[in-house]
Amino acid sequence: MGTEFRGAGWAGVRGLIVDMDGVLWLGDRPLPGLAEFFALLRKREIPWILATNNSSKTPESYAAKLSGFGVAADPGRILTSAGVAAEYLARQSPPGTPVYPIGGEGLKKALAEKGFVFSDRDSRWVVVGWDRELTWDKLALASLLIHRGAGFLGTNPDLSYPTPEGPVPGCGAQLAALEAATGVSPVVVGKPEPEMFRQALALLGLPAAATAVVGDRIETDLAGAKRLGLKSILVLSGVTTTRILAESGFAPDAVFPDLPELSLSLESVEAQGFSPASGKPASSRQ
Amino acid sequence: MGTEFRGAGWAGVRGLIVDMDGVLWLGDRPLPGLAEFFALLRKREIPWILATNNSSKTPESYAAKLSGFGVAADPGRILTSAGVAAEYLARQSPPGTPVYPIGGEGLKKALAEKGFVFSDRDSRWVVVGWDRELTWDKLALASLLIHRGAGFLGTNPDLSYPTPEGPVPGCGAQLAALEAATGVSPVVVGKPEPEMFRQALALLGLPAAATAVVGDRIETDLAGAKRLGLKSILVLSGVTTTRILAESGFAPDAVFPDLPELSLSLESVEAQGFSPASGKPASSRQ
């Protein structure tokens, strides 16, 4: 694999923000070492938040998926870009505010849980997540609302979504269409934008410098982490290959081929005195 | 109105490329001086081409519309961005080539007339026009085809389309979504890109310097004209006001409040000896 643990990747780390698809599983297939990774975190009392840019599913459905893989997870520890968008909106506008959502059940449920009501008219916000039932009529209504002054919020900037047949348009492509039509840029809450990381840090109760982001995507997980001063830990079990990493010019704080290697490293750091309180630096390993 | 005929706007002009909506009519309402304008062109034997970025209607339907306003027009003199796209494609790929169209009847008819066949699989080209029946499935299929190497052609770059309620997404917004999803930029044939002007010049049999574009939009009609060395004649009967013109910093070769004033100017130039053969410069007028 040719990967290595680069420098003091775990230095000062007391909690983790972990991406899911490409790190914990690929589609419906759990990746090796999944249950052992969570067992290690539990044993060492390392707090974690799971964070995904996917806006189409609920935290409860991710908890159920993890449960199927033998991992007990509180949905309150699982952030989706839909939930982060709803939380962001709840700090801007009171319950009962009319909003116009473009997206699936995950987005609608997250907004409804915060007390927002859905309206085609006089909506104060247009909230856009990935929507495989997108139509021209939805885009036109969103454009008119934004033109009339509604806020424009996007769950995540991902331009495309990989499928076995190739890439299909992601939420970011929908946002591009609306930005083109209206001349208005959306506020986006998903990675690599700061909002999702900020909400995760608030839930962890940790400062950025004491927290590491574990992810498989340089441009979202790791770039966002670095920008906010979090540690960036890359696993090569998802979309990023060593070649992509080399060509990116991005230097993560640590790189692991997969979850078992990451857990081994975390255990070895533990053995040297890593704890939530001490946060001692890790030694480097080959 | 405060407009004026600026400098030698008609100098050397022997033929016209005329935009339709905002110049000849607004929606279904003919603008004053429409029939008289065409009568003057006929009397003076000034050849013309009508050219629109709208891809949703056929040349025949525009000819029928003009007929309803008392103007006889050969559909062969009417260019739509759909027809220009089909003609462009016909020079790239032989009849029978499978293409995947996103757009209305105007686009499908233009492509079918050139012998292209429609296919969801193995299409060599994705051809995108304005489509009020756009769906996520259409965008996804187009993305996959472009990913597999299909050419990516757009009829026109207009980002939005004005309606009484405000702007709704135009073809350019659809292109933005696909460009975001695929990372591939489309070839666009509509104004201000050169292809539509080139096809119009070929039909007129005139060089760029002997041809004027009459339009109501600075960023499409006039910017495209200037870039190709055609004269740019602005009428203020459409989307452009004197204020928009002033703020644009664009200097058309001539500006008229409407079609009657343009016709008057053309007649006065005629009176001074304008003809297809001589192309004498016009005097300026207030």
Question: How does this structure look, described?
Answer:
Two copies of one chain form a homodimer. By secondary structure, the first copy, chain A, is α/β, with parallel strands linked by helices. In chain A, about 35% of the residues lie in helices and about 20% in strands. Chain A is built from ten helices and 15 strands. A six-stranded parallel β-sheet of chain A has the order 5-4-1-13-14-15, sandwiched between helices. A five-stranded parallel β-sheet of chain A has the order 7-6-8-9-12, with helices on both faces. Chain A has a two-stranded antiparallel sheet with strand order 2-3. In chain A, helix 1 packs parallel to helix 10 and helix 5 crosses helix 6. The longest helix of chain A has 13 residues. Chain A starts with 14 loop residues before the first strand and ends in a 15-residue tail after the last helix. The relative contact order of chain A is 0.19. The N terminus and C terminus of chain A are likely disordered. At the A-B interface, helix 5, strand 11 and helix 6 of A face helix 5, strand 11 and helix 6 of B.
Straight-line N-to-C gap of chain A: 12 Å
Oligomeric form of this entry?
Answer: homodimer
Mean pLDDT of chain A: 91
Number of separate helices of chain A: 10
- In the predicted model, the low-confidence regions of chain A spanning at least 5 consecutive residues are 1-7, 273-286
The 3D shape of chain A can be described as globular
